[in-house]
Amino acid sequence: MIEVKNLTKHYSLLESPAVKDVSFCAKEGKITILLGPNGAGKSTTIKSIVNLLNYQGEINICGYPNSSLEAKKSFGYVPEVPVLYDLLTVDETIHFIGKSYRLQNYGKTAEEYLELFDLTKQRKKLAKELSKGMRQKLSMLLALLIQPKALLVDEPMVGLDPASIEAVLQLFVRLKEAGTSILISTHIIDVVNEIWDCAYIMQQGEIVREIHRGEEGSETLKQIFFETTAEEKA
Amino acid sequence: MSSLFYLTFSKLKGTVRNQFRSITSGLVTIFMVLLYGAMVVMVFVSSSTYKPESMGMNANLALMSGIGMAALFMLTVMLNSRKALVYDTDAHYLFAGPYTRAQINFYIMGQSMLQGLLYGLLGCFVMAMFSIDGYFSVPYFLITLLVLWLVLFFFLLLADYIYMWSLVDRKHRKWNYIVAAVFCVLTAAVFWVSAHRTGYDMKAGLLDFVLSREFCYVPFFGWAKWALNAFLEREYLPVLLGTGLLLAADVLMVVFFLRFQKDIAEQAVADAEAVSEYVRRVKANGGMAQSSDRKIKRVKGDFPEGARAVFFKNLLIMRKTGNFLRKQDMLILVIYFAISYVVMPQGRFYMFCYMMLLWLFNLLNDAELLGDLKNYQIYLIPEKPLSKLVYAILPAYIKVAVIVSVSVIFAGIFNRMDFLSILQYLIMLLGYGMIFIAGTVLSVRMLKARSNVMLENLLRMLLIVACAVPATVIGVLCYFFFQDLQTAMIVVSVITLAMNFVISALVIVACQGMMNGREL
Known about the structure:
By secondary structure, chain A is of the alpha/beta class. Chain A has a single domain (2-82, 149-233), classed as Rossmann fold (3-Layer(aba) Sandwich), CATH 3.40.50.300. Chain A has helices at 42-49, 69-74, 90-100, 106-116, 132-145, 162-177, 189-192, 221-233; strands at 2-9, 19-26, 31-35, 56-61, 64-65, 75-78, 150-154, 181-186, 198-203, 206-212. Chain A is globular and about 50 Å long. Chain B has 520 residues and is an all-alpha fold. Helix content of chain B is 78%, strand content 0%. Chain B has 21 helices and no strands. Chain B has helices at residues 2-19, 23-45, 52-79, 88-96, 101-130, 138-168, 174-197, 202-211, 221-232, 236-258, 265-284, 290-293, 308-321, 327-343, 348-363, 367-373, 376-380, 385-414, 419-447, 453-482, 485-510. The longest helix of chain B has 31 residues, at 138-168. Chain B is globular, with a radius of gyration of 26 Å. Chain A binds chain B through residues 12, 50-54, 67, 69-70, 72-73, 77, 79, 83-85, 87-88, 92, 95-102, 126, 142, and chain B through 21-22, 291, 296, 301-307, 309-310, 313, 316-317, 320-321, 371, 375-377, 379-384, 516-520. Chain B: Pfam families: ABC_export. Chain B: The chain crosses the membrane at residues 20-45, 57-79, 116-132, 138-163, 175-195, 236-258, 324-343, 389-413, 425-447, 459-482, 488-511.
């Protein structure tokens, strides 16, 4: 479970906060979506959760403070733009993460995801030789390699082809069913329309609406999003 | 056209604004400006009347250092194979936007003007620092800046002009080499005349070369020296003639440049994208281009568990890039060894060690280390922050330790130094190596992604000062206690050696929190 309490993030003291007093929870076995237009604070929220930013507030992952080793062992993070070691091959990158996280028998998991992401033939290639989509898939593979209890994904479908998008969506559902908390930040609603359980709509650094599946009535998530963001703008 | 002026102005404003995005970065910028500004002001404050008989040699040496820097810059610009007129964002706006060819050329020329001015200022700074006799007055600074700017602007524009023609037909690229070769040959010819005049005594020949009238016949650089020498000697006609020649050449170049009308958009944009990508990768790599472009060896490696994997990962990358012992590092060390052998027969070993210190300063702007400290993966690894930091910096330090140890021991044995001297200088260099690494870590800790080479070097210097403070205090106390200067000096040097390690270690321990990933 990912718990965020009163998260506030200032990039500059002279400017208004990028995220303002945000609190929410991404539960086990649920897919939670952070929705919002560009600049709403979604990526800042995710980066704060994985402790890559300084912030005010309290964040716990699986019951541990996000800066603790226990928390770090339990979550996987897929950034919007993959940052890989360009001079390591796909195989070496997998081994590096596997060993540095002290994972046991990660080879089988790696094989499974290499197959799923169609990276088997690329395993001897250097990361810098991979295409944008392949890099994104490798980044996702690394996050999944640790068999995380919580998965944080920032704009997961950027650069992926339709077949990969479908595979990733099915994977998210599978992980959810296995009890993983999944937090996805996106502004492309159509992609997550089928899989979301809970959605938080963000605008100008604040959560302006919380919806759980079943509460949307006859409206689609997309319609609710546009209504909410239009109201807030007005 | 006004939009292009607006673009130039906004970009300048943005660069300045970026430096003040955080309080630390802003304070460091102000400190650097004040530091370098004060150095220049000190030169102006202490300015006195130029006396050719007593100051001539130093003034000419300072002049040649500024002109030499400009010449080196010219050679770099002309021989650089990776060329583009502008960066990719500019290229897209310029070539796709509603601008005439002349307007585009004018904008590109404006960039060269600014670049020439910046490098001209740098040349002036170098000359001011070399002007120890205090003749560097404000008027001399202004005329130096004008002359250097005229020289640099000409070559920047010429390089762009040749590049544009090379896009029309690749055979025009040869003109870059021809121009560079002409200057090398002319300079070598003047040097040969000087060497011949002094009976091939290299040291005397070099001094004669600096003072010789023949150098003034070398186009551009000679004219610049002619004008500036004449200004110091208050002979204003040669000042006008020298500057006039440069100005005339610049005007001619501008006319040719602005009249260029060929369609080169496609390749110009492609080159702009390639160069911009290259620059981005160099920046991401911590200022080093080598590993971005170098051929990668297919070597295999294994990783142990935990934070040690970071160490082995960096070693593997070093083995792949051959970055552990680079050819250029070996070449520099051989050159240093040769220089120390020729220049200072009485103290070859000491000179070599101090030259190695300079080399360390540059070597430790380490690509792998900076790359590691800027990659989020390392922050997420569930290990103790101090272990991760130590294992991240260890490969860079081992590299230094191995190269320094081998070089110092070899130089010591070759120069028949006693064991204690070799050991003392080895410890000194290893200590400074550790300070330089600590400076890099501290710089990333303070400025994060805005960390840069200039700040790293500043922090390193501050750390060196910090290391010297306790030793000096204890040394002074020893002097009062024992009343013996020699004992006090030994105490100061021994404690300084120890403090280099202690303070560096403290800095690294103090910075360990950054490995938790806050504010990457």
